[in-house]
Amino acid sequence: MALKLGPLKFPLAGTGSRKDDPFWDFFINTPPADIANTVTEMIRTASEGNVFPTKAELHTPEITSSHVKDLARYLGADLVGVASLSGDEYPFAVVCAVEAEYDPRTALGIGGQAPVQKGLFISFVLSAWIRELGFRATAAPHADGERLAAAAGLGTLNGEGRLITTKYDSRVHVANLIRTDLPLAADG
Questions:
Q1: What is the signed CA dihedral for 124, 130, 134, 138, rounded to 10 degrees?
Q2: 120: Cα separation from own chain's centroid
Q3: Which of 80, 107, 158, 161 would staple 102 via disulfide (CB 3.0–4.6 Å)?
Q4: Tally: H helices and E strands in the chain
C-alpha cells in the first residue's frame, strides 16, 4: 500500500519564501519560552578554568597575535583583531566578530541568536586556550565592544555607534571581548 503525502513544499526553497514563512519568522524572532532550550545560557554561566601555573614560551607579540587570530578564525570568527586597553589590569582585548544575517538585538528567536551563540563559543574556547598558555584571559560582554572592534581595525563606527565593516557592512555581531595579559601586538 502506498502512502500518499501530497505535494511536498520546502519552506526555504525559492525566492522570498523566508519572508512569508511563519515558522521561519518564529525561529528568528520569537524568544524561547524556556532559556534552558538554548546553548547560550550554558556557555554564559560556565565557569572559567584556572590559569596554567607555568607560562608558555612565546614568539614575538606579532607572531603570538597571528596565532591567536588563526585560532579564532578556525573556531568560526569572521573578523578578529587586537585592541590595546589602557587603564585596565589587562593590557589587550581580542575582539572577534561573526556575520549576522539578522541583528541579534532585535531578532530574539533561537535562529536570530545564532551569531551570539557562535561568538560565545569562540570567546570561551579562545580564552581557555590563552589560560592554558599560562596567561590570564577572561571573556565577557563589554559596553564598548563595537568601539574596541573599530580600534582593532575590524571596521568603522557609523553615527549610531554601530560597527560597519567592508565585507559585512553592519551585519556583524561583536562577540564577548577577551581581556588578557598575553603579550600581543595591537591592530588598528
A1: -50
A2: 6
A3: 107
A4: 6, 7
Q: Which three cell numbers stand for residue 175?
A: 562577540
Give the count of beta carbons closer than 10 Å to the beta carbon of residue 61: 15
Chain segment 125-180, per-residue pLDDT in tens: 999 999 999 999 999 998 899 999 999 999 999 999 899 999 999 999 999 999 99
**Sign of the alpha-carbon dihedral angle for 124, 126, 127, 128:** positive
Residues 144, 31, 176: CA angle, nearest 5 degrees: 25
Backbone conformation region of residue 153, classed left if phi is above 0, alpha if psi is from -120 to 50, else beta = left
Indicate the domain borders of the chain.
59-180
Convert the pLDDT of each residue in 43-69 to its tens digit. Answer: 888 899 999 999 999 999 999 999 999
